[in-house]
Write a structure and sequence with these properties.
Blueprint: H1 2-11, E1 15-18, E2 22-25, H2 36-45, H3 49-73, H4 76-95, H5 99-112, H6 117-139, H7 143-159, H8 163-185
Antiparallel strand pairs: 1-2
Helix pairs in contact: 2-6, 3-6, 3-7, 3-8, 4-5, 4-7, 5-6, 6-8, 7-8
Amino acid sequence: MIREAVKSLIAKGLVTTGPKVGTRVLPEEHWNWFDPDVIAWQAKAGLTPEFLRDLMDLRRVVEPAAVRLAAQRATPEDITDIETAFEGMTRVVKEGGDYVSYDLRFHQGLLRACRNRMLIHMSKALGALLRTSFELSASKKGGPAGSLALHRAVLDAVIARNPAKAEKAILVLIDGAHLDIEEILASSRDLPRLNKPASMLKAA
């Protein structure tokens, strides 16, 4: 059992073993940051500013490209899933509830709709950032309500099969989320803890 666990950690780039040196933890630059377990463990241990900024850079590279592809490749089932998530977000803004989970479902639906296995796999690494971004947005007064139109613009562009418009719309959302995170990092406020349930939104 222990041997298998060590093999798993070696595969993730977390540790190394060798004769006479035993098992050693490797520096972070050796870790496999595209492994969902590594991302999840780091998120539970605590999100550092460096970790969040790395993820923000990754999101700005990956998500616009994925949304462009989604506007070209999304199936009717993909569109239905994304629309259902948006309807959930709209309902929660009015009635209260778990806004973050619907927001996460919306963006993950877009990433799945790109129909590219590698980009979909990379989306798992973005999960911690997306959850953090949505928690921060939900905590801002009027944040969720104000973002609904921006989400709708992304969805409408995907439905219209307009890649350029979809990319432009998602960049507006991403850049707003980045500003929210930088504002928090510049303050003394604590970042959300991802090992706890998402915060509930109060009814409007």
